[in-house]
Amino acid sequence: MEEKLVPKRQYTEEFKTEAARLAESVGQHEAARRLGVPVATLGNWVRRYRKGVQPAQAEVATAPKRPVSELEAENSRLRKELASAKLDIEILRKATVGSTGHCNRLSNLSAGVRKPNVFRGR
């Protein structure tokens, strides 16, 4: 079964605080439904609100930040690696087509059954 991935969203500190207050008054599930925020996320905000810790302070303490230059270097390296892999795939695809005379596609290879060519023209 395919899971739906929710894109990572960034919320302002003010929004988090107001969402925690709303959850205190109407309940976490109802507040999460109204705001369109996962219940677990809202629960984290409420917990921090009750402790008196600002969400930004808690995130800084838990997630070490890497320098931007290091991230850019890794991003560049990964882009080069991806380009190289795509080139390898294209070369192999062309070599396969050239040696067999036809393109191997999943539909041609599925279950080893070859479908007969049937004229369905006008």
Structure description:
With about 120 residues, this protein is mostly helical. It has 2 domains: about 15-60; about 70-105. Helix content is about 65%, strand content about 0%. It is built from 6 helices and no strands.
Low-confidence stretches: none
Number of helices: 6
- How many domains, as an integer? 2
Distance between the termini: 42 Å
Broad structural category = mainly alpha
Could you give the order of the helices and strands? HHHHHH
Radius of gyration: 26 Å
List keywords for this structure.
122 residues, mainly alpha, 2 domains, 6 helices, 0% strand
Describe this structure in a few short sentences.
This protein is an all-alpha fold. It contains 6 helices and no strands.
Write the layout of secondary structure elements.
Layout: H1 13-26, H2 28-35, H3 39-51, H4 55-62, H5 68-100, H6 106-109
Helix pairs in contact: 1-2, 1-3, 2-3
